[in-house]
């Protein structure tokens, strides 16, 4: 019997090979796309869940409001916090600081730049990074100890045992001896915590003077709660800690009229679960992936499969008319409903099975391009994981049930006597068909609008004035193996006589994401009189304004003839002057850090965006104090003509002063463009998804149009005999479908507006959603549907009516 069913299924599929091709190809494309998107989403959602006790791991953050009442979250913690937690919170089992950064490492004739992170000894007990060599209890017992990753051990020592060997590590500009006391496993790709080497937090530059200062924060803190402790209970207890150690700060905020936060307090110290750290986009320096992005991937994957399933349902139900006589004959010969249902559903299962295999093949072939386009990390191993195959199996059963179950049930219920008499009663299948077509084009129209809004926002971000020049400025990372000030002086000397070089300067903070992949931010919060002020504290060198084209509004620029400029002079931005409450702050003094003394304001500059437009430009203070931060990036402004040639000139000069250092220079416009890689990926994703959705929808619309026109062949012939024109027949055949598309556009527009309004809320600066976007999207959807249906409509209208009537 099975062989008989298989033979009938293959013959039926071949007989309707056009519809078989449309269904099979549509399902294959949908399965392949959904598989890649589903695996990417699963990878993102798996971050940090490999830790054995990830439910008990948390990152601390402050919650407070700014002057405008906007809620702010900051993960920058003060140094005395961990000692206080250890002394007063028995419910905290372990705690560690975490300071990111990079450092030059030397061993023999090898000089490498590695991610040297600062932490506490508890780090090795809290996280599930296996210690391959050494003892977790003593590996970080001393300030001079260093624990290195397996990869770093191979890079530095090769096959030799690294234990007990000495390395030179660049700590705060000085190469310091460090003893290897452990080798730790490399961090997995789905870890928010990354490293090449670990050292004690006491090695941080500002630790000696800031270790008791509750008003200075420059690192993160992770804690592990005891099994009996709860997040809510610890957060409640942390209120008393804030009141005890930061009472003066809370009092001043209250006196100055700051709004209270979501917990009704001036400032709260809260816990962020480890599983959510990867999605942290709110705290200062938060570089996480918005969960909306992940859920969007999953939603698009569902959309793909759903549209393909709709095509399958529509085509199978529409084909019921052509199979009615077959079903009637088989019923008259004794076939039961169960047998007919099993046979017709089996045909669906066979086609779906082939489509799944083709989809897996497409996913395998498209994986490299997918990884490149969307910066994903999918491997062939991901496609062969048991959980992947389990997901494929579940999806296969679901689609088979959705796409085959209902049509099979409809066909199996045909009354044999009525069918053989030519009286087929099918209820109102057109209602279901039309509803599914509307759903298809709602999804397609939604994706079209989202794509257009995202592209418009990206263009807006890239073209919005930042307050400085980006097109003609080259940024060069100094690296951790060189002294920034010395490198700047040597580069200036080398480029002094180059006519295409207009200015050279240095800074401690890069603008945009450079080729070195690192980023940093140094912020200060302090009192100016009775005003609480906060700012980005940026290390620069002379000619910084000239190099970037930043406007000087009041006072003067840094001048090397003024000896105090290198240690106690600052430039403040307009918003900083406003925050200070000074119309002309030139000559005023600020005290951001008592250990460094007062700084005098010598000039006021125009506001500029030091960071991406996701956040509003913050007040900025420029200084030349080498005690606060070294020069990490060299900036070279070149003439607008022959930019590639200028880049080669700068590269040659760099190679002359740093022959062993890799040149990672890039133009600032390239760096700032990398700020929006996530949005660009999402835009590419929506563009691709919209294209696939339209493709699948048009395939289904075309197939439905073919079947509908076949069923109206006699009517078309009669109309032509009675004098109907080709245009009138095409209009008649098209209007029903175009009405459905217009309804879909009308339903999709408010959904798209709501979705894009929510997405744009993530940006401090955003483009308005214009009405013409919805109009253009509607025209595109209607135009595509019109072309799809018109091809078959015109073909039917041009048929010889004698032939169509004779065939009937």
**Radius of gyration from the alpha-carbon trace, in angstroms:** 34 Å
Shape field: elongated
- Sheet with the most strands? 14 strands, mixed
SS elements, strand count: 25
Q: Can you tell me the residue ranges where pLDDT is under 50 for at least 5 consecutive residues?
A: none
Give the rounded overall mean pLDDT.
82
Separation of the first and last Cα atoms: 36 Å
Query: How many separate helices?
Result: 26
Helix content: 40-55%
Strand % is 15-25%
Structural class of the helix and strand makeup?
alpha+beta
SSE layout:
Blueprint: H1 2-15, H2 17-45, E1 57-65, E2 71-74, E3 77-78, H3 81-88, E4 92-99, E5 103-107, E6 110-114, E7 116-119, H4 123-126, E8 131-133, E9 145-149, H5 150-157, E10 166-171, E11 174-184, E12 197-200, H6 207-210, E13 217-225, H7 231-245, H8 247-255, E14 268-273, H9 291-318, H10 320-332, H11 337-374, H12 380-383, H13 386-412, H14 416-420, H15 429-463, E15 473-477, H16 484-495, E16 501-507, E17 523-528, E18 531-539, H17 544-548, E19 552-555, H18 565-568, E20 569-573, H19 574-580, E21 589-590, E22 599-605, E23 620-623, E24 633-638, H20 643-657, E25 666-667, H21 668-673, H22 677-711, H23 713-721, H24 726-760, H25 771-797, H26 801-807
Parallel strand pairs: 7-12, 9-11, 18-23, 20-22
Antiparallel strand pairs: 1-2, 1-13, 1-14, 3-13, 4-7, 4-13, 5-6, 5-10, 8-11, 9-12, 10-11, 15-24, 15-25, 16-24, 17-18, 19-22, 20-23, 21-22
């Amino acid at each position: 019997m099975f062989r008989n069913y298989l033979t009938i299924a293959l013959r039926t599929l071949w007989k309707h090979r056009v519809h078989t091709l449309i269904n099979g190809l549509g399902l294959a494309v949908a399965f392949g796309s959904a598989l890649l998107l589903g695996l990417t989403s699963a990878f993102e959602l798996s971050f940090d869940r490999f830790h054995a006790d990830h439910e008990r791991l948390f990152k601390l953050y402050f919650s407070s409001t700014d002057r405008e009442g906007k809620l702010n979250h900051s993960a920058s913690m003060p140094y005395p916090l961990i000692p206080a937690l250890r002394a007063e919170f028995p419910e905290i089992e372990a705690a560690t600081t975490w300071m990111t950064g990079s450092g030059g490492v030397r061993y023999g004739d090898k000089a490498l730049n590695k991610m040297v992170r600062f932490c506490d000894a508890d780090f090795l007990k809290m996280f599930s990074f296996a210690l391959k060599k050494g003892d977790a209890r003593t590996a970080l017992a001393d300030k001079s100890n260093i624990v290195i990753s397996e990869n770093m051990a191979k890079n530095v020592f090769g096959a030799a045992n690294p234990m007990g060997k000495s390395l030179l590590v660049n700590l705060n500009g000085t190469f310091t001896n460090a003893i290897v006391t452990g080798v730790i496993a490399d961090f997995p790709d789905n870890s928010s915590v990354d490293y090449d080497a670990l050292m004690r937090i006491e090695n941080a530059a500002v630790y000696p003077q800031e270790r008791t200062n509750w008003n200075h924060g420059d690192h993160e803190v992770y804690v592990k709660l005891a099994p009996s402790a709860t997040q809510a209970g610890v957060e409640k207890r942390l209120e008393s800690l804030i009141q005890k150690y930061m009472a003066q700060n809370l009092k001043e905020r209250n006196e100055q009229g700051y709004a209270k936060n979501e917990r009704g307090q001036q400032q709260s110290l809260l816990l962020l679960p480890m599983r959510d750290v990867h999605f942290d986009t709110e705290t200062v320096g938060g570089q996480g992936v918005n969960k909306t992005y992940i859920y969007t991937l999953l939603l698009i994957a569902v959309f793909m499969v759903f549209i393909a399933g709709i095509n399958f349902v529509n085509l199978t139900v529409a084909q019921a008319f052509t199979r009615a006589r077959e079903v009637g004959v088989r019923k008259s010969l004794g076939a039961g409903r169960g047998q007919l249902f099993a046979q017709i559903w089996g045909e669906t299962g066979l086609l779906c099975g082939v489509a799944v295999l083709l989809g897996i093949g497409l996913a395998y072939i498209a994986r490299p391009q997918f990884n490149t386009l969307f910066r994903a990390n999918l491997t062939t191993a991901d496609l062969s994981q048991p959980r992947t195959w389990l997901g494929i199996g579940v999806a296969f059963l679901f689609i088979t049930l959705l796409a085959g179950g209902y049509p099979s049930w409809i066909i199996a219920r045909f009354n044999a006597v009525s069918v053989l008499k030519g009286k087929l009663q099918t209820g109102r299948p057109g209602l279901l068909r039309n509803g599914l077509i509307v759903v298809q084009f709602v999804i397609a129209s939604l994706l079209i609008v989202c794509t257009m809004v995202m592209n418009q926002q990206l263009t807006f971000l890239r073209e919005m004035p930042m307050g400085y020049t980006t097109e003609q400025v080259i940024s060069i990372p100094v690296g951790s193996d060189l002294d920034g000030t010395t490198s700047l002086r040597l580069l200036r000397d080398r480029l002094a006589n180059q006519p295409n070089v207009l200015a050279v300067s240095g800074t401690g903070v890069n603008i945009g994401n450079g080729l070195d992949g690192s980023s940093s931010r140094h912020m200060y919060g302090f009192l100016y009189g009775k005003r609480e002020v906060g700012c980005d504290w940026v290390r620069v060198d002379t000619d910084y304004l000239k190099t970037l084209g930043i406007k000087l509004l009041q006072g003067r620029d840094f001048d090397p003839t003024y000896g105090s400029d290198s240690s106690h002079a600052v430039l403040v931005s307009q918003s900083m002057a406003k925050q200070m409450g000074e119309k002309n702050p030139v000559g005023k003094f600020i005290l951001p850090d008592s250990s460094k003394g007062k700084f005098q304001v010598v000039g006021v500059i125009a506001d500029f965006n030091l960071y991406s437009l996701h956040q509003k430009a913050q007040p900025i203070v420029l200084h030349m104090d080498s005690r606060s931060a070294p020069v990490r990036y060299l900036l070279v402004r070149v003439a607008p003509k022959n930019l590639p040639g200028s880049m080669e000139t700068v590269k040659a000069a760099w190679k002359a002063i740093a022959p062993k250092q890799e040149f990672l220079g890039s133009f600032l416009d390239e760096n700032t463009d990398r700020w929006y890689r996530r949005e660009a990926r999402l835009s590419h994703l929506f563009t691709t998804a919209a294209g696939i959705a339209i493709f699948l929808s048009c395939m289904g619309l075309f197939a439905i149009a073919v079947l509908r026109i076949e069923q109206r062949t006699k009517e078309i012939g009669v109309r032509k005999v009675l004098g109907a024109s080709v245009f009138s027949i095409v209009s008649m055949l098209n209007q029903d479908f175009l009405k459905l598309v217009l309804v879909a556009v009308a339903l999709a527009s408010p959904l798209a507006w709501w979705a894009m309004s929510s997405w744009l809320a993530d940006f401090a600066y955003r483009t308005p959603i214009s009405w013409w976007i919805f109009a253009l999207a509607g025209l595109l959807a209607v135009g595509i549907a019109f072309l799809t249906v018109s091809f078959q409509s015109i073909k039917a209208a041009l048929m010889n009516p004698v032939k169509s009537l004779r065939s009937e």
